[in-house]
Design goal:
Blueprint: E1 2-8, E2 13-18, E3 24-29, E4 45-51, E5 60-63, E6 71-73, E7 87-89, E8 91-93, E9 98-100, H1 102-113, E10 118-124
Length: 129
């Protein structure tokens, strides 16, 4: 199981995930806005990341997100490019709220998990959820 430790900020959420080789990547999401589709990050909880061969980006799609559908893990540079999805990145510029090397981080996920399902647990570290 992969664990995403996420912090919520006013304009975005940023999480940290440790890959099996101990490499750290970041995950950018929209801020928490009561789980409203397209404009909110998803709730903390346990999810299955399923390989996505039919979505727009074709990396992974999270299953059984309460009140939501089509939550993809895909590359993005800005939080505005996300419609409730998650964007892995290698680094993050807090000043400009910009994900850096997002496609590279997505490819690392593909390297580790390939075409297999994997479990993702999201924990909000600044709310205790």
């Amino acid at each position: 199981m992969q664990i995403l430790y996420r912090r919520q900020y006013e304009k975005y959420c940023l999480g940290t995930m440790i890959l099996p080789d101990a490499k750290e990547i970041y995950i950018l999401e929209r801020p928490w806005i009561d789980n409203v589709p397209f404009i909110s990050c998803i709730p903390s909880g346990n999810y299955i990341a399923k390989p996505d061969d039919s979505g727009r980006f074709r990396y992974y799609e999270l299953q059984n997100v309460p009140g939501r559908t089509h939550i993809e893990i895909h590359p993005a540079n800005k939080v505005e490019q996300l419609e409730g999805c998650l964007a892995p990145c290698m680094n993050f510029d807090r000043r400009t709220i910009t994900a850096i090397e997002s496609r590279k981080a997505c490819e690392l996920l593909k390297k580790w998990f390939g075409n297999f399902e994997w479990h993702l647990k999201i924990i909000n570290v600044n709310t205790g959820e």
